[in-house]
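Note on ligand handling. Small-molecule inputs were canonicalized before submission; formal charges were left as drawn, and no protonation-state enumeration was performed. Where a ligand contained multiple stereocentres, the stereochemistry in the source SMILES was retained. For zinc ion, this procedure yielded the string shown in the input block below.
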Amino acid sequence: MATAQEIVGKHTADAPVNIEGLVEDLGVELVRKADLHPLIAGQIECIEPNRFRISVNKNDHYYRRRFTTAHELAHFLLHRNLIARGVDDTKAYRSLDIGNFNNQNITREHEVEANRFASRVLMPKDLVRKYHGEYAGDITLLAKKFQVSEEAMGYRLQALGLA
Ligand SMILES: [Zn+2]
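Structure output:
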């Protein structure tokens, strides 16, 4: 059986990263366009012991939904023991008392960690460097290539010292 690392590698070999395929290959159910509270971007829930489902707000732009999917995947990979019944994320990626779960285990630091993971998985360092060269640093082209918001790409370029 492939390790999580190998599965991640397969889906992040080129841009845009196949975030949906990655989630599903890791054995997590994915509802790409879910009916959620208007202030909730996404959630991850435990549907039975060791079975998880990520749901993403159908009203969000596709690029936002990709980021949300990656953020929820981070909770699965990094914070699985804290998920309990589930975790909701607001549009600002905070676990608050709106939505379905009001999870108190997930702290601000966990959210920062999940956002950092999402940024890294959607915009792998080597690929960003490669296309940053090819596109002469054009952030609009880069954001389109990676299917992320220009804001998310801007943060990533800064983190990599390419801004
Ligand atoms: Zn979160």
